[in-house]
Amino acid sequence: MKTKVFFLIAVIFLTATVLKADDFKDAMIKAKKNLTEAINSMDEKQLLKVRGEYERILQLKTDEWLVNYFIAYVDYNLAYTGMSNGKNDIEKMKKYNTSAIEIINKSIEQKNDFSESHILKYGLNFNRYIYEMEKMMEIATTLAQLEQKIKAIDIDNPRFQYLLGASTYFTPENFGGGVTKAIPIFEKAVSLFATRIEKEEYYPDWGGDQAYGYLALAYKKLEQFDKAKEYFDKGKELYPNSGFLNYYIKSELEKK
Questions:
Q1: How far apart (Å, rounded) are the C-alpha atoms in residues 6 and 13?
Q2: How would residue 21 be classed by pLDDT, with cut points 50, 70 and 90?
Q3: How far apart are CA 191 and CA 184, in angstroms?
Q4: What CATH number belongs to 23-152?
Q5: Phi, psi angles (nearest 5°) of residue 144
Q6: Residue 84 and residue 92: Cα distance in Å, rounded?
Q7: 218 CB contacts (<8 Å, ≥6 apart)?
Q8: In whole angstroms, what is the distance from residue 57 CA to residue 68 CA?
Q9: CB under 8 Å, gap of 24 or more: what pairs does 123-127 form?
Q10: Residue 19: pLDDT band with limits 50, 70, 90
């Protein structure tokens, strides 16, 4: 009799665990879809709504490190709502970027070997240059440390290569950056994106459209307009719904 009871309890526990896992997966897939749509529209209210979705998913107590990663990533995008469409709201950038750094640090504490968290932290710290120029040396040191860590654990991650290219693109030539140096890094990124397969459908997969977009802008700056169009068109083919390509990059390429 006891054996049957224990068996029944085990079956109930296993069933509950499977159902919980399914609930988590379904919720994460749905939230990621909504997040992609919100990013493409760069709508602050929509992004905040998706943030709420991830906060509710935390209540499932499953892979909280990954959920916190996405909450930080939502804040990363919310920070850019202060700088989009010609706006220059430094305080909004600072508010959301600071929040994102706090949350990604929490995610890293929960799971230190998830390379995506260190990569996002790299991008967030680069954003600090926008509102903390007085801490330039501290930021540069932090970025160098993160770069070495990421290279040791996931050097061929396309998001890392994209962010490395972006940081090079925006760094003046006399400080070791510049468009010419950024191009091969962006080209490596798009090559890696082409073959990248994520572990799960709801894992991070962002950055491909940005890599193509900045390649187009880089070649425009070098007045290689055919190459700029080539990368823009390829990006549009792969990411037809990208707000970044359809609005920001398109408008930048159309400028004389």
A1: 10
A2: low
A3: 10
A4: 1.25.40
A5: -65, -40
A6: 11
A7: 169, 179, 182, 183, 186, 228
A8: 10
A9: 123/76, 123/163, 123/166, 124/72, 124/76, 124/97, 124/100, 125/101, 126/163, 126/166, 126/167, 127/76, 127/79, 127/93, 127/97
A10: very low
- pLDDT for 56-113, tens place per residue? 999 999 999 999 999 999 999 999 998 876 778 999 999 999 999 999 999 999 999 9
Domain ranges for the chain, please list them.
23-152, 156-256
Terminal alpha carbon distance of the chain: 83
Q: Which CATH architecture has domain 156-256?
A: Alpha Horseshoe (1.25)
Q: Hey, do 23-152 and 156-256 end up sharing a CATH topology, with the first three levels equal?
A: yes
Query: Long-range contacts: 222-231, Cβ < 8 Å, 24+?
Result: 222/179, 222/180, 228/253, 229/253, 231/190
Q: What number is the average pLDDT over the span 36-65?
A: 97
